[in-house]
Each structure stands twice: as structure tokens, then as C-alpha cells.
Design goal:
- With about 325 residues, the protein is an alpha/beta fold.
- The chain folds into 2 domains: about 5-75, Arc Repressor Mutant, subunit A (Orthogonal Bundle); about 120-325, 3-Layer(aba) Sandwich (Rossmann fold).
- The protein is about 45% helix and about 15% strand.
- It is globular and about 70 Å long.
- The structure holds S-adenosylmethionine.
Length: about 325
């Protein structure tokens, strides 16, 4: 029964973020009346909503005033060091609504041959400025934990450059050139992403340190580089496309260079529930076209392209990210 109603918890968290409750309480503790008035929510609903958040350990209630529980500000206020609200909002507005129709999606046999994957889904999103910002915030919530760990995943001293394929507005690239100053960074992504990239580089103080390459990585030429990173990208594509994109990276990487693939990869036994639910989430978002995959599958695609397997490293992130490192023979 706990599994049955687990979404109650998700929804109170999501609504609290959408309403700005955590930001409000970070400034000062407040009574239910003050919260009702500032957030313009219904008095009749407010008490249970707030007390449920206390019960979940996200708020405290002391002498009639609500405040943030210890540690919450770090993750749930916009000024916190590891703000995850970007992803929470995306889950509230998009993922949750698609998951609501899971039964119908599973039964939609006509969709089996008409799955959504890769570029198509992104270009549609890029038409709407508000949605695209939500998406970038969501992606950076996850990849923000990856960047610093990629800096230590391999010895970068022998490499001068890298390109982050499908690197979006450059969050990981910015972290990497900041951690390893001798690296010249690159981000390769679809043309509509470039203005968002320019804006983000200015915000991160890395303008000029990372070059944006606009193109379609399934067909346009890729820039020559020492290393390519491809993360949280292949899970948007069908297995055939993953193998094809990996083969294209082999052409672009200089002899002796490296390919680093990161994603929330599945365990070989397929028993890890959080990882499998994450994979099902990719399926739900893409009507079946995308999914997570295992280290063994990733190794197979890279070896077929000509790479030599080096290692797979578990990353400490908010999903089960792993990075697979393979090398192009010198
Ligand atoms: C899920 S995001 C991952 C972003 C980032 N690497 C991360 O770890 O958060 C996938 C990215 O791939 C880009 N993309 C999709 N199809 C592409 C294509 N054909 N060529 C270049 N980039 C593409 C999207 O624009 C998006 O930025």
C-alpha cells in the first residue's frame, strides 16, 4: 500500500517547490496564516499540506511556525548549493502527467512502431522558451553531480581538448574546464541550443573556454578532438542509433584518445528497481523509443566501433550514473 500511494509524497514535494514554499521559509519561519496569505493557497487545504511536509522531514513546526528542516535548504531552495528544484518542476509538469497514463501507454499497440526518440523530441521542445528553460534546469540538476567526477574519472594530463556531444548549454563542459584549466572544451548540440549555451557560459564565467559546435551528431561532421563525452544522451535513442553515434565518435577522436559515456546504466541482472524505473521513465517519455542500458551493452557498441574497453566507474550522483571509458588505439 505504501507503493500504491507513494505519489502523494511526490506531489506534496512538487507543489511545495512550484509554490516557492522552501524559498519563502528560507528567509524566515512563518505561521500557517502567513503562508496561506503569501502563497495564496486555500486555508482549508493548507494545514494538512504543511503538516504532511513536516511528517516527511522536509519542514519543522515549532511554536506554531513552519521552517526548513536541517539540510533541506541545500537542495530545495533556489540559492542552495545543490538545488534540485529544476528537475522537480519538470517531473511535476511533464513526467508525472505522462506516467498518469502508463496503463494506456503500455496497451497502445499502435505506438509500438511509432516510437519517439532522439532529435525529434528536442526540436519540438526548443520551440517554447519556457519549456526549454525547465528542461535545461532539469538536465543540469542531474549532470551537476557528474561534471566534477568526470574530472577525476581519467587522467586528463595527456589530453588537450574534449567535446561534449549533446552537451546542452554546457554545464558539464564548464565544470570540466574549470577543474582542469589546460583543457579546451567543446559542446556539440542542435543549433537552437546555442543562445542558451552563450548565456550559461557567461553565468559560469567560462566564455571563450568552451566552443559551441552546432549540428546534428547523427549526420553532420564532428570536430576532431582528444576526447568525446556523451552523457544522458544515448538513453534518448534506440540501440541502433546508439551504435551509429558511437561509431561516428570513433572517426572524430584522435588516435590514443578517449570516449566517456555516462548514463544511469542498468545492472546486468536487471533487479535494481530504481535503475529500472529510471529506464521505464525514458520509455514513458519517448513512447518506448529510449531506455537505459547496461555497461555490457555499452561495451559491445564501443568495441564494435573499434574502441578498447578501459573501465566502468560508478559515479556518486542522484541517479545510478556510471561512466564507461574506452580508448581509441594509438
Ligand atoms: C538529455 S540531454 C543531455 C544533456 C547533457 N549531456 C546532460 O548530461 O545533461 C540530450 C541533449 O542531446 C541534444 N541532442 C539531441 N539530438 C541531437 C542531435 N541529433 N545532434 C546534436 N545534439 C542532439 C539535445 O539538444 C540535448 O541537449
Amino acid at each position: 500500500m505504501q507503493i500504491n500511494s507513494a505519489y502523494f509524497q511526490s506531489k506534496v514535494l512538487q507543489s511545495a517547490v512550484e509554490l516557492g514554499l522552501f524559498d519563502m521559509l528560507a528567509e524566515r519561519p512563518a505561521t500557517v496564516e502567513a503562508i496561506v496569505s503569501e502563497l495564496k493557497i486555500r486555508p482549508r487545504m493548507a494545514l494538512d499540506f504543511l503538516d504532511a511536509l513536516v511528517g516527511l522531514g522536509l519542514l519543522t513546526r515549532d511554536a506554531g511556525e513552519y521552517g526548513l528542516a536541517a539540510g533541506v535548504g541545500e537542495f530545495l531552495t533556489t540559492s542552495g548549493g545543490h538545488y534540485v528544484g529544476g528537475s522537480i518542476v519538470q517531473h511535476a509538469r511533464k513526467h508525472y502527467r505522462l506516467w498518469a497514463d502508463l496503463t494506456e501507454t503500455l496497451q497502445d499497440l499502435a505506438a509500438e512502431e511509432n516510437v519517439l526518440y532522439g532529435t525529434k523530441s528536442f526540436l519540438k521542445v526548443y520551440e517554447n522558451h519556457e519549456i526549454v528553460r525547465n528542461l535545461m534546469n532539469h538536465m543540469d540538476t542531474y549532470n551537476g553531480f557528474v561534471g566534477p567526477q568526470l574530472a577525476t574519472a581519467i587522467d586528463w594530463s595527456g589530453y588537450q581538448s574534449f567535446v561534449d556531444l549533446g552537451g546542452a548549454r554546457g554545464n558539464v563542459a564548464a565544470q570540466l574546464v574549470t577543474a582542469i584549466p589546460h583543457l579546451q572544451g567543446g559542446v556539440y548540440d542542435l543549433p537552437p541550443v546555442e543562445p542558451l549555451f552563450d548565456e550559461h557560459m557567461a553565468k559560469k564565467g567560462t566564455t571563450g573556454r568552451v566552443t559551441f559546435y552546432a549540428g546534428d551528431f547523427t549526420q553532420d561532421e564532428l570536430p576532431a578532438t582528444d576526447a568525446i563525452i556523451i552523457g544522458h544522451v544515448l538513453h534518448d535513442w534506440t540501440p541502433e542509433y546508439r551504435a551509429k553515434v558511437i561509431a561516428r565518435t570513433f572517426e572524430a577522436i584522435r588516435p590514443g584518445g578517449a570516449l566517456l559515456v555516462y548514463d544511469a546504466m542498468l545492472d546486468d541482472e536487471r533487479v535494481d528497481a530504481p535503475a529500472l524505473l529510471q529506464s521505464l521513465n525514458c520509455r514513458v517519455l519517448s513512447r518506448g523509443g529510449g531506455s537505459e542500458y547496461s555497461v555490457a551493452e555499452c561495451r559491445e557498441w564501443t568495441e564494435a566501433a573499434g574502441f578498447t574497453f578501459d573501465k566502468a566507474v560508478d559515479l556518486e550522483t542522484i541517479t545510478n550514473d556510471r561512466v564507461v571509458v574506452v580508448r581509441k588505439p594509438a
